[in-house]
């Protein structure tokens, strides 16, 4: 099993776990756990494969769906023991984000050869599953928070792509991308890192605009 | 016209009607009815075909879009007579859910030969149109309710797939899947069936977590 | 550069600008601008290409992603000067809607030869990016407002398709479609045009239904 396959399984597993934790927060039944775990675990990669025009990864390999199902059942029976499911969700999401930013960029680069496309598919793969989870579970979207999130995926995809372009051995480029993304997102979670912003005025409600 | 084609047209028709009823609840104009009816009627099948990598079903056959348009116009002129549009919406949605759980599983099984994929495409086809409708119309998502919903689609897809694997004649497997899904969802609507749940604590709001 | 290519770049540019303006209203950081500008700028066309089963347009041509990035940076440094970002967003959205309704219909017609499919892909291409933007940015969805929106896309796609079918030269059909869509949407923005509606009762909340 090479590093990319490992990142792939790891990403699906931890994203599936975040979906199941969101299901637990919403007090869904076991099928709700299965559904959210699957959507979150395989959503980002599905979108990536559709855009790249290649067969969707889990259609040809049942292992992915079975991982999601297994994780959902496991979380269903253990989530009640966890003190802060939301914190665990955020940290697992950070691991998945880092794994998928590299995985998505690697697949995009392998198929199109274009660094620009590689970076875009890296970011999409890493963020799409979590966005779907938050949308479906009615969680506050991580996109609208001041903390750094998409940037971490961008860092991971860019570092990996750069590493691959300058000829690093695959393991090294994968690792560098993963570490870059996880360090950025982890720093944001731990220390509240955020970009300096322009402090633009907040948008008014449409009905308040004369 | 075989049983699968019949299920297909029936599913598109009733899902289009639920989209139009949602448009009526939101007091949209006629084009809003057309839009929501189309998205709901053909959304699930579109997603299924993209994932399976086959041509999207309504691109090659204009009948589907015309059904959605016809249903939208019909509901536009009659919805004001209906006493409870939401109840009608839920029951039509149950019919569509049952039809599409079988239809989606049948197409997934025919194309990939994998029972696991068949069950996933059955569930996705059956639930995706309704999820899109609720998201776009701002209705409370049926996913987050305690009542059984995704489970009904799972029951229909699983019963059909099992029936097909043990060699039931197509009509029988189709019918068994349809009846299974409709019975489960109908029971949930009529009697409030829900899975026993762990009664996990509800999730706290992110800002309340220390 | 022919008229369709021009409409394509123009549509991507103005939709990217609306995404960046939404990011400004939500006080996101620069990466949030990049993300929303890209999703809005290339979202509708991505969906169109997936449905038509052709390679996604921006995967083979990096110019589109670079346009989105450039627009995002430009808006990031200038949006604070704009008095009403929401009004500007709405008018740019109208330009993009008109450009993409023609562009989407032209591509659908060229690939399938079906006028019905051309009109549907025109409407989808024109509206999907904006719907995604509103969903992700938590803006009130333009779909649920009484003003005419989807209808404008429908007008543009239908006028273009009709023009192409009766044999207008490409430039003329493109222009007629663009003008039709922009006139309808512009009229709705300026004069509050709305369809006469049935004044159906608003939907009750599910919990209020006996």
Task: Summarize this structure briefly.
The first copy, chain A, is mainly alpha-helical and 210 residues long. Helices cover 72% and strands 0% of the residues of chain A.
State the end-to-end CA separation of chain A: 61 Å
Global geometry of chain A:
globular
The helix/strand order of chain A is: HHHHHHH
Strand content of chain A: under 5%
Structural domains of chain A: how many: 1
Poorly predicted regions of chain A: none
Largest interface: A-B, 36 and 33 residues
Structural class of chain A: mainly alpha
Major beta sheet of chain A, specifics? none
How many individual β-strands of chain A? 0
The quaternary structure here is: homotrimer
Let me know the average pLDDT of chain A: 87
Alpha plus pi helix count of chain A: 7
**Proportion of helical residues of chain A:** over 70%
What is the gyration radius of chain A calculated from CA atoms? 17 Å
């Amino acid at each position: 099993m090479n590093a990319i396959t490992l990142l792939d399984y790891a990403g699906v597993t931890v994203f599936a776990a975040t979906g199941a934790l969101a299901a637990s927060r919403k007090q869904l039944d076991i099928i709700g756990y299965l559904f959210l775990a699957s959507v979150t675990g395989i959503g980002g990669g599905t979108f990536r494969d559709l855009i790249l025009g290649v067969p969707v990864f889990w259609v040809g390999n049942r292992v992915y769906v079975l991982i999601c199902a297994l994780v959902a059942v496991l979380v269903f029976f253990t989530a009640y023991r966890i003190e802060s499911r939301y914190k665990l969700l955020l940290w697992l999401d950070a691991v998945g984000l880092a794994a998928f930013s590299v995985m998505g960029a690697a697949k995009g680069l392998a198929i199109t050869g274009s660094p620009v496309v590689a970076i875009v598919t890296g970011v999409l793969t890493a963020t799409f599953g979590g966005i779907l989870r938050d949308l479906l579970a009615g969680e506050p979207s991580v996109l609208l928070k001041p903390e750094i999130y998409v940037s971490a995926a961008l860092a991971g995809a860019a570092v990996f792509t750069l590493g691959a372009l300058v000829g690093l051995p695959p393991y090294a480029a994968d690792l560098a991308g993963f570490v870059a993304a996880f360090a950025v997102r982890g720093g944001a979670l731990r220390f509240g890192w955020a970009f300096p912003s322009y402090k633009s005025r907040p948008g008014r409600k449409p009905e308040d605009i004369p």
